Amino acid sequence: MEKYTTFDSRIVPLANENVDTDQIIPARFLKGTDKAGLGDNLFSDWRYDADGTPRPEFILNRAEMKGRQILLAGDNFGCGSSREHAPWALTGYGFRAVISTSFADIFRNNSLKNGLLPIIVDRDTHQQLFSLTAEDPDTALTVDLSRQTLTLPDGRKVTFPIDSFSKACLLNGVDEIGYVLGMENEIAEFEARRAA
Amino acid sequence: MPQTLLEKIWNAHVVAQQPDSPAVLYIDLHLVHEVTSPQAFDGLRRRGVKLRRPDRTFATMDHGIPTHSRDLPIVDALAAKQIAQLETNAADFGITLYGLHQNTEKQGIVHVIGPELGLTQPGMTIVCGDSHTSTHGAFGALAFGIGTSEVEMVLATQCLLQRKPKTTQVRLDGSLRKGVGAKDIILGIIARYGIGAGTGSVFEYTGEAIRRLNMEERMTVCNMSIEGGARAGMIAPDDTTFQYVAGREFAPKGAAWDQAVAAWRRLPADEGAHYDGTLTLNADELTPMITYGTNPGMGMSVTGRVPDPAQIADVSQRNALSKALNYMALRPNQPLLGQPIDVVFIGSCTNSRISDLREAAALLKGRKVNPRVRVLVVPGSAQVKKQAEAEGLHIVFKEAGCEWREAGCSMCIAMNGDQLEPGQYAISTSNRNFEGRQGKGGRTFLASPLTAAASAVAGAVADVRTML
Ligand code: SF4
């Protein structure tokens, strides 16, 4: 995995609560056998009409949203299925961070393994960020994982929580599978102990 | 220190635990299906590593397979490719596959066949690349869904990096009334406590109303723990559990069985064990439940009225409800009873076991489905199908006017061509009513098999208690 670096980006606000993984990537797009191309179908049923025409009223279809790497989402983002296709679709589109007050557990895990940072903020900060983007849609934030901060345009910093292990894995681009593969001795001992 | 069920299982499976790091947790049983595994097997190939424990890994096909007929070729090229890919992966890595071309008599929805084959046992850690892995917790196992990267990790190492979750006790006292079942229990819990109630924790269901449930009912309750936000649901094993497991294909036999049961009897929480929180519900107060909105928490008694967004103080909740009612084309304060429906789906890992089909068939016997309504009955596994046919249930369904299908996920996830048309209303015994879940633009009411069968006859949302 690539190392997770500090970046600045403007924000795509999506106020809906409880956005489930069926909305992030509908099941009919899960028939692939690789990860490619999922970004085009991110939020497909909100983004396109039945005939595939982009719906102008959906936020992602506004020209100025292109290239934005931060999604500001409503409460309990990513609930529902365990499909890792959800973070693959989000990163495939170009997102590097999602901000919400809470995330569904499996979605959060899956995101961390794919270089997509789930940023949890408190209710007040969440409200403020939505207000800021409403006042100035070009509001940009700096996401600094090593300091665990979001920097607002006025220089104010908001810290966010992340466990130290996930943080280290993201910052150093650690391959978690490689890490556990390296514990072969412990695993074999555990198996031997249990068989005894 | 007194321990909970979760703590006992957790402590017995920690391979290594470094400070500030997640535990390396050993996995006893890994179930695999066609949709969330291809990229994981590719990962193994890229790394050049073997599958560590093929003997603890079992695969089936369920999400994308057709349920019309097993004789026809699969029309959907992508689904066909995914299925072929799983066949190749199972063969290359030496795992048992219950598929369309091999071991077909044991194929089925992954969460139906695990228990049915006796693979699912108390005290185990069980994972699958599917969120409804929570179903298996009904046996007193720690069972949860994982993503594809984690599937790859378990294939490669038989372990997962995990942090110990909290445990929330969900206690159900009292007893269920006639016409009210396991599905109503879990829909009732989620309607009362919300779809985020379990985030970060595991639900352990306790109380006399839970103890009285049979294993299939317990599976229905645990299945939808994920809809309450909990990654896993658990019920302490007891004689009901042991009787269900005994004699199944992969269950321990002989002296090993006695030893296993002795160990399983030590699993229930110790007196005074600490729970991080408790939610309660009185079974006596439960009625048949139905959802009206676009998440499983938007549920109510089938005789209730759709809530009015204007009455909700919280802005984002009000907006969410307005948006849901708009999608569902329902009016505030309208009753759902009598709301016409187009489709009834009886199936899914929530309600496709033999007892679910028996309940639905008992109601449909001697009755006819309203001719306006299309009814799909999709058994959860080939074995359930066989058992149902041995009991003549398929005849009851067909005579009533239902379609009798092959085993699979079918219209629960609408990946295989079984789907709603835009704007159609369905009563579904499945677990998710998200926008488009059962087909783009489709509108889902979640309910029990009894409510689904009663509504099929009425051609509209019905209160099964008036038909018993
Ligand atoms: S029946 Fe539905 S919920 Fe269950 S495993 Fe299949 S798709 Fe998932």
CATH architecture of chain A: Alpha-Beta Barrel
Distance between the termini of chain A: 38 Å
Helical content of chain A stands at 25-40%
Oligomer status: heterodimer
In whole angstroms, the N-to-C terminal distance of chain B is 49 Å
Percent strand of chain B: 15-25%
Largest sheet of chain B: 5 strands, parallel
Rg for CA atoms of chain A: 18 Å
Separate helix tally of chain B = 15
**Content-based structural category of chain A:** alpha/beta
β-strand number of chain A: 7
Largest sheet of chain A: 7 strands, mixed
Give the overall pLDDT of chain A as a whole number. 95
Describe this protein with a few key phrases.
heterodimer; A: 196 residues; alpha/beta; Aconitase, domain 4; 7-stranded mixed β-sheet; 8 helices; 7 strands; B: alpha/beta; 5-stranded parallel β-sheet; 19 strands; binds iron/sulfur cluster
Written description of the protein model:
The complex is a heterodimer of chains A (196) and B (468). In chain A, 33% of the residues lie in helices and 16% in strands. The longest helix of chain A has 13 residues, at 123-135. Chain A has helices at residues 21-24, 44-47, 85-93, 105-112, 123-135, 164-172, 176-181, 184-195; strands at residues 7-14, 70-73, 97-100, 117-120, 140-144, 149-151, 157-159. Chain A has a single domain (7-162), classed as Aconitase, domain 4, CATH 3.20.19.10. A seven-stranded mixed beta sheet of chain A has the order 4-3-2-1-5-6-7. Chain B has 468 residues and is of the alpha/beta class. Chain B has 15 helices and 19 strands. A five-stranded parallel beta sheet of chain B has the order 5-4-3-6-7. In chain B, helix 12 (354-364) links the parallel strand 15 (343-346) and strand 16 (374-377). The longest helix of chain B is centred in the first third of the chain and has 17 residues, at 77-93. The structure holds iron/sulfur cluster.
